[in-house]
């Protein structure tokens, strides 16, 4: 399900950036800060600071729908379907249904099992999730957090390729490209139709030595684009045209600036840093010509 782009990419505010906010609050803040879309979390992870009310509570859904109708923002993607040892993909269907009601296009998935010999289980779970999500018009974009079960682009490619589902996809997060030491040239090996949107944040050049250090950085200390080390132009040039979801949690910045100003600076830094960077990959149509 490749995206088609005849205009500038959308900029979406990912929920982890302001994880304390409810989905409705996220929408209003994103609208005031100048975003085009939001990427709300409909399946919680129970991480520190995460909003307490279930996003699938009827009152929360009504508030979210009102916020979207009021602001006119789009919903780019939803999250987070986690593959765990006791995972049942059918449990994700309520999130799929809500995502479809809000015209979301993508669902993020990642694997958090503890064994290293469970490839077939991860593959079967991912494939089943794709099948369940297809009637709702959702792609399932598999991510590779550097401290999760699938830690590399190659491992993630293996699962999506083996599943061979038309709504399969891979989510590239600029932070995890850095932490997993992915050579940017490897992005050219990912089929264009599997790349739907990009997670955006920056970081300093060093890589944490421990899993705990990576988690702390990923969930609490990401930097604005342009403040760190990441080669955004190089990433954008090697990917097909995509929308951008800014996932940039930084509790120190939120404490200093407040939710809205932090969100506004995330967007301003991204637009300034990306500048005129554009995809240099040939489209499937161009390759066939």
Automatic annotation (TrEMBL):
Pfam families: AP_endonuc_2 (PF01261)
UniProt GO MF annotations: isomerase activity
Keyword Disulfide bond among record annotations: no
SUPFAM superfamilies noted in UniProt: Xylose isomerase-like
Domain Xylose isomerase-like TIM barrel: 29-249
Keyword annotations from UniProtKB, A to Z: Isomerase
Name under which the protein is recorded: Sugar phosphate isomerase/epimerase
Signal peptide: none
Keyword Isomerase tagged: yes
InterPro entries: IolE/XylAMocC-like (IPR050312), Xyl_isomerase-like_sf (IPR036237), Xyl_isomerase-like_TIM-brl (IPR013022)
